[in-house]
Amino acid sequence: MSYQTLYRKYRPSDLSDVAGQKSIVKIIKNSLKFGRISHAYLFCGPRGTGKTTMARILAKNVNCLDIQDGMACGKCKNCLSILNGNCPDIIELDAASNNGVDEIREIKNKVTLVPTELKYKVYVIDEVHMLSIGAFNALLKTLEEPPEHVIFILATTDLHKVPITIISRCQCLDFHRISEEEIIKRLSQIAEIENFDIEDGVLESIANLSDGGFRDAIGMLDKLVSYSDNKLTLSDFEELNGIVSIEDKKNFLKNVELGDVKNIIDFIDKVYNKGKDLVIFSQDLMILCRNLIIDYYSYQKLDFDIEFLLNFVDVLNSLSNDLKVTSNVRIVFETRILSFMRQNNVKNDYISSSQVDNACNLSVDNISNCVEEFKEPLKSVEKNNFDEAISQTKSNQKIIEKNNEENLIRRNSIIINNCFCNASKKNLNFVKENWEKLNEYALDNKFGAIACYLSDSIVRAASDKEIIITFDYESLVNRGLQFGNMVGELLNKIMNVPYYVAYLTVDQWNNEKKKYIENLNQGNKYIYQELIDFNDSSDKIENEIKASSNIEVTDSITDEAIKLFGEDLISVSE
Ligand SMILES: [Zn+2]
């Protein structure tokens, strides 16, 4: 008999088997129970958290002829047809393997045909963010008016790459990482059924390494089963996944704390030569430090200096980020660790810094771009006050956010003012003509989300440096304010001008337009204002939009206004 992987064997076939995702299970159960089925779902979340599995369950349950309490019967002809596979009314498409224009066109052409066997035809499009612009546009048309008998389930790991126009037409369900407890629980059930002999700590290590993805977790268990002879041991697991054992990690930490340079260099040498992954090692160390810190605040139990751990977490954090992008993993790892030891020991007077310097010739200038926000509040607290520290950090964060928001709004009004100073029809036409080029960036890694966002707007006015655009909803306006300098960067690529953009709702725009015409009628002129930097929190931008009367009233107000807005102005001035 051929071996069936654990992942396939234990893939949930109904809502009750799904690990984690409680709120999503509940939402889907209730919508099935009360017959409130949406015609388009968008499942988003990290890999391996159950999106595709849930899509299949949903496809089955909406079609079950004897649905009870949201659960499929598994016996009716529809259930059986789906469980056997090859049901022609369930169509799965993986957008990652083809960009989908032809497939989506095909869907568009066939979508109106009624299902051959089932109640609903269900289209599951996995990794939907990989569709090309053309395919998205074709899909959008279908999503705008889906036939009664059709359900779309789109799944993605990268929500920000999906155009807002698509998102706004779907019911979005957010799949979270599955908790370690949940993963351990499910793995133990499987281990019990399969009669696996598992050493303590193995399932915990799997859960830890899987980073909340159940598919990865069960895949690791599968690999370990094929690797091990009888008992599934922790050392086999560590060997297989290039992990350093917890004891070795603790020793490593101790040697860093004590400044034992020779031991550290020997150990790195050993780890590296055994082919272990230093990125994973530094992340593991970070997790270990984090657990030790939590233990300290929970039980006042610690074999290390707390200050040392807090500082070392910062170093590891920036180190593991840097290791991902460097080709000299070992050198960066060694120098950072040794530089940190040098600083730590200078501070603690354990050993002279020259001891470290003699061990290897290091440049210690550019180290520790630490994450200060994390370190400071933790440092300042007494034992037992961990929660308080966290809530303190959060409230500080809120104040910063609020100040930031006010600045963004002020900045927006300055851009509007400046745009009105020099706006012209010619500039407006230029921007409008080039706005479509945003589509070319819709799948760009860096600018994708911004390009999709901007292409949903209407360009209302433009000067040589500023643009005013509008959206239907205030939430969309707020989103634009958050994008910051990236918008100018993108527009510079398209039009060779790093435009400043102001964001308004249609109502706000009509008001601004009205104000502009009033000012024009009264002979008032907008004065160009200096634009503050995004991070500038000073009050120098307090001054409101000023209107002074140093311009002669022109004979034809309408002509002047039309120069700016074109014909659509007239409707406002009437
Ligand atoms: Zn059924």
Please tell me about this protein's structure:
The protein has 4 domains: 169 residues, P-loop containing nucleotide triphosphate hydrolases (Rossmann fold), CATH 3.40.50.300; 61 residues, Helicase, Ruva Protein, domain 3 (Orthogonal Bundle); 139 residues, no CATH class; 178 residues, no CATH class. The chain is flat and about 85 Å long. It has a 5-stranded parallel β-sheet with strand order 2-3-4-1-5, with helices on one face. Helix 9 crosses helix 10, helix 13 runs antiparallel to helix 16 and helix 18 runs antiparallel to helix 19. With 574 residues, the chain is an alpha/beta fold. The termini are far apart. Helix 6 links the parallel strand 3 and strand 4. The structure holds zinc ion (ZN). The site of zinc ion (ZN) has 10 residues, from helix 4.
Distance between the termini: 82 Å
Q: Count helical runs.
A: 26
Gross morphology:
flat
Helix content: 40-55%
Summing up helix and strand content along with how strands pair, one would put the structural category as: alpha/beta
